[in-house]
Amino acid sequence: MKKEIFFSLSLTAILCSWSCLTHKNITPNVILILTDDQGWGDLSLNGNLDISTPNIDQLGKTGAVFNHFFVSPVCSPTRAEILTGRYHVRGGVYSTSRGGERLDVDEETIAEVFKSAGYQTAAYGKWHNGMQAPFHPNSRGFKDYYGFCSGHWGNYYNPLLERNGKMVRGDGFIIDDLTQHGIDFIKKNTDQPFFLYLPFNTPHSPMQVPDRFWKKYKDKKLSQIGSNGPPKNQNHIDHTRAALAMCENIDWNVGRILKQLKNSDLLKNTIVIYLSDNGPNGNRWNAKMKGRKGSTDEGGVRSPMIINWPGRIHQGKIIKEIASGIDLLPSLKDLTGIKYQSKKSLDGISLKPLLMEENPKWEDRYIYNYWKGKLSLRNQNFRLDHEGQLFDMVNDPSQTSDIGKIKPKILTAFKNAKQKWSKEVLVELPINDTRPFYIGHPSIQTTQVPARDGTPSGNIKRSNRHPNCTYFTNWINQEDSISWNVEVAQDGDFEITIYYSCEQDAIGSIFEVSFENESIKGEIKEFHKSEIYGASEDRVIRQESYVKDFKPLKIGRLKLKKGKGTLKIKGVKKKGKALMDFRLMLFKRV
Questions:
Q1: Collapsed DSSP state (helix, strand, coil) of residue 412
Q2: CA distances (Å), 360 to each of 321, 353, 373, in order?
Q3: I want to staple 139 with a disulfide (CB 3.0 to 4.6 A). Which of 133, 186, 271, 468 is the partner?
Q4: Residue 348 has what DSSP assignment?
Q5: What is the pLDDT of residue 133?
């Protein structure tokens, strides 16, 4: 009897272990790492002799490398395509700021797909597809979010960030901090499937990187030059050095992620994807490809791309077939076995046959790269640029010779495809964006209303022409104001906080926040002068705004009714030379 009980218990334990193992095998975790402004050539894996990226290289050597993988020319469009499996113009994304980066709420995201399949979901980093709910990552399928939602950030050391809508202070260098949040998420979810999105924000400017990485590059002589020839001045040289140092920092953090997967015994049950959002943000080595960030030519849209899944994807597999960011969602659905019918038709296709089969049947296709009126097409062997020139990308990857006249049939086929796509897809691009900025959406408690999205009047001006991380200053006229086109999503009472700085003589100044017939006044009672900073941390002189610290001031509660209107902050009484500098406003539902 005892032997029978022992045998029964042992068999149960074996079956349980087998069941758990099987469960892990059929529900692999997914980690998607997206870098910002890292070109195809910014990896030693791809032939860059001036950089060392051993962790990313190893990811490619033990996984599959897509040699011709394409994304959009700039940040927010690529993010939208990765999130939805659809071209960004379908989702209302037409700019990188002032609301044009927002992904339409009727678009279904990859996080929503995985969440519906029982996955834990998190995103840590640069979102860049909408700040206010329902565009916010917490409203788009990500249960946990930490980072910033703008297109760029002005400071990478202990910066002001947000955690699920709440403003918090970052811890150390931003990429190290984001990675640590990813590591903690992995530790927390070792026994349940997870989808982790790590959209890092480097090597995007400002060019800040910890000393341990910069020391290697500060005086380094670079052996490879960019497609446009040698750097024009010392600033260009240092920009390249800083970018490469930032890429090595990324590589170090990729190593930290892989180490945690190993320590958690999750390496074989986790799909890791690594890519960038566009071409390099400078004229550095990129295999002599034409174009850089912002360009629809090869160098502006070709991205490094690695998919690693130990034991399932053959080590060192090189995939020559062209692919695109729009292919990630259908591919990951297939690889993880998620049975989910998308609400909208996808532009991307599953890459699973290329990854899992030795000799897959694969038809040639067109991949479309669009930005700011420029449309370029790529198939396996040719590219039609935005000016209608045809290039043989096998024999002329630098796009030096237009072969349209000697390949008229191919040229005609490309032009027909371009015309068809323009009529069927490009027509969905909004001519006039009438979408308001939302306040009080029920999916998130606190709404952030930044200076970035506001319109100043009178003499008020932005701290920089690149709006993403700016603040308003020069409020020297009492009657001047800042306004936003908003919609209150749901009736409610909201606690309002503004972030300001001011001179000593501004104490006693009064301002008013209003929406339609409701308003509340606030008074500046505390002096808060903050000097701009960032220059001492920058390795290269930046183009974007410098930053400073702003003081939060709670001004009380305001009852808002559902509906559209103008949100405004205006001066009521001004003491001293200027009323205040303004960074952002928070609306917390109470």
A1: helix
A2: 11, 6, 36
A3: 133
A4: -
A5: 96
497-539 confidence digits (pLDDT tens): 999 999 999 999 999 999 999 999 999 999 999 999 999 999 9
Residue 165 shares a structural domain with residue 117: yes
Q: Are residues 397 and 540 in the same domain?
A: no
In this structure, the answer to whether residues 259 and 384 fall within a common structural domain is: no
The tokens for 496 are 């309002």
For residues 479 and 411, membership in a common domain is answered with no
Q: Could you give phi then psi for residue 395, rounded to 5 degrees?
A: -100, -15
How many domains would you assign to the chain?
3
The pLDDT of residue 18: 38
pLDDT at 202 over 70: yes
Residue 22 confidence (pLDDT) above 90:
no
Q: How many residues does the chain have?
A: 590
Provide the pLDDT confidence category of residue 13 given band limits of 50, 70 and 90.
very low
Are both 146 and 283 inside the same structural domain?
A: yes
Token pair recorded at residue 323: 């692919």
In a domain, 5, yes or no: no
The DSSP bridge pattern shows strands 305-308 and 120-126 to be unpaired
Q: Give me the helices (H) in 302-383, please.
A: 328-336, 352-356
Contact, 336 vs 28, CB < 8 A? yes
Angle at Cα 147 formed by Cα 142 and Cα 149, nearest 5°?
Answer: 80
Q: If you search the block for the tokens 């015994």, which residue do you land on?
A: 265
- 120-145 pLDDT tens trace: 999 999 999 999 999 999 999 999 99
Task: Give SS3 for 301.
Answer: helix
pLDDT band at 26 (very low <50, low <70, confident <90, very high): low
Sheet holding 120-126, edge to edge: 166-169, 160-163, 144-148, 120-126, 194-199, 29-35, 270-276, 305-308, 64-66, 317-319
Q: Is the dihedral of CA 47, 385, 75, 261 positive or negative?
A: negative
Q: Which residue has the tokens 């040229």?
A: 411
CA dihedral 436, 437, 439, 444 (to 10 degrees): 120
Q: Could you tell me which of 136, 142, 86, 139 has the C-alpha nearest to residue 111?
A: 142
